[in-house]
Amino acid sequence: MDALSAVHMKSSTALNRLIDRVRAAHASKTPLEIRGGGTKSFYGEVPCGERLSTLELSGISSYEPSELVVTARAGTLLVELEAALAEKGQCLPFEPPHFGTGATVGGMVAAGLTGPARAAVGSVRDYVLGATMLNGRGEVLTYGGQVMKNVAGYDVSRLLVGSLGILGIVCEVSLKVLPIRHSTSTLRFDCDQGVALERLAQWRALPLPIHASVWYGGVLHVRLRGAGPAVDSACKTLGGSCVDPTDAVALWGGLREQTGSFFSDAARPRNLWRLSVTPTAPALALDEPQLVEWGGGLRWIASDRVHAVIRDAAARAGGHATLFRTAGERVSVFAPLPPALRALHERLKAAFDPERILNRGRFYPEL
């Protein structure tokens, strides 16, 4: 037996174990906590139930560099997947955060979190072509495929992104990948948040290769990426001061993995709020430390104010707030759902997991 066959056999055995475990839990109505590397276990409501690991379900199933498509199992480490892509000069353009060495492909999909390039390249959901999942009845279901136009009816594979495992266990996922853009430059501008937001709004109307942006502590950084001549031209157009490439890598890496000064100093031990708002919204009238990403569309706030104050500020800015990290009690993490949307979530949960055994309450208590 060759190495590839051995890997497939191991994965098949692991999948059968998961199926048996879920079917037994469904019969006994025993809740299960789905867990990969556990690097994002802080996110969402408090997990409950017996631990169900997906780590044995690992490995890259197929990779076609010429087709820009890779298929990997849920327990595959993100570092391994990204290394395999890098060997072919390709990447996951949405820069998924790891938050630790054990981050997995399944956790990436379930959490649905995107890095600094979100405003320029899109989210995790935009790159999911298809997925195989295990629902709450222990049934293996496959949706989508390995090409961009291969979806009939509801695109369930993308529905899994950000669902925190409440609909089913991600077993395998096919992703669109892109070539690595090597021409990049980071510019620095000293300005307050209001000026930074105004500049970002103006630059959005121009044909500039802006790949990421971040404002914090009176400094705006903008990352340019694309064709060499376009990056050089944009540097001349925007001005500012050029950041040393090594320092730039550390800056954007610290932002992606939340190891930078804002997250390590200002946001602890306070609650860390993630506000998704309209990019054109003005600076939020809150005195606490703030960091702005995604051209103004993502605002991070370190605050111990009551939830209602933060959620009201997000609503007035045309968005919603999520309690991302907390040193206290993890309750009311996500913004309350309107009645119609809540009813839709409940119907989906009932269809995929009628006994509510998978990650019960991880997204919303009633789910």
Spell out the key features of this protein.
367 residues, alpha+beta, Uridine Diphospho-n-acetylenolpyruvylglucosamine Reductase, domain 3, 2 domains, 8-stranded antiparallel sheet, 5-stranded antiparallel sheet, 11 helices, 17 strands, globular
Please tell me about this protein's structure.
By secondary structure, the chain is an alpha+beta fold. The protein folds into two domains: about 180 residues, Uridine Diphospho-n-acetylenolpyruvylglucosamine Reductase, domain 3, CATH 3.30.465; about 140 residues. Helices cover about 30% and strands about 25% of the residues. β11 and β12 form a beta hairpin. It is globular and about 65 Å long.
**Under the CATH scheme, which architecture of the largest domain would be assigned?**
2-Layer Sandwich
Under CATH at level 1, the class of the largest domain stands as: Alpha Beta
Q: Tell me the quaternary state.
A: single chain
Sequence stretches where pLDDT stays below 50 over 5 or more residues? 148-153
Shape category: globular
In DSSP terms (H or I, runs of 4 or more residues), the helix count works out at 11
Radius of gyration: 21 Å
How many β-strands, per DSSP? 17
Sketch the topology as an H/E string, one letter per element.
HEEEEHEHHEEHEEEHEEHEHHEEEHEH
Which fold does the CATH topology of the largest domain refer to? Uridine Diphospho-n-acetylenolpyruvylglucosamine Reductase, domain 3
Q: In the residues, how many domains can be counted?
A: 2
Distance N to C terminus: 44 Å
What fraction of the residues are assigned to beta strands by DSSP? Answer: 15-25%
Coarse structural class: alpha+beta
Largest sheet: 8 strands, antiparallel
